[in-house]
Predict the 3D structure of the following.
Amino acid sequence: MVVGIAAHTLNNQAQGIDEPQPQTSHSTLLTATIAQIAATPTESLTRPTSKPDPTPTPEAEPTSTVRIYDIPLTEELQTFTFYLCEDYGADYEMVLALMDRESDYTASAISKTNDYGIMQINRINHEWLTEELGITDFLNPEQNIRCGVYMLAELAKKYDDPHRVLMAYNMGEKGAREYTSKGNTSSAYSRYIMEQRDKLLQEGGEE
């Protein structure tokens, strides 16, 4: 670039000569022109900085902490139940209280009315739960808890009142409709479970 400018300067000087001038060698003139260009200050170029990404980085969702209670249910099963309730949108403490009322947390319990396991899943529900959830053993603690939590979550989609949900779980939806049609808004069963639920929440559990 410098050489090109120097050549351009030489050309202009050559075209502007009207009278004889002292001859100067091309090499001397080229050297002087380059020196003049080198001595001329040039503007510094600022490298453009990259613009920040306008899209904000999504923050990681906080992880819920399992609440472990002093109840006759292993920590592993409480943890399993907690995350299952998170997935299904069920009330964790209410589920634990229901286990207490139904079976006293006994996985092998079978009632005289054919209710099975920790959450006492009645045999009348076994077929559709097997098809829906792929259950193979209603006395298996994890599978039994999954059935109970799923049923409660489905009932909660129909009824806003937890007492109505619990009555439908206990009596069946038809039985609960007949019971509430008489002006009943809760039952001894639902009140017991909600009271136990509140006690658990007051304890707070170990995180």
In short: Residues 1-20, 42-46 have pLDDT under 50 and may be disordered. The two ends are 73 Å apart (CA to CA).
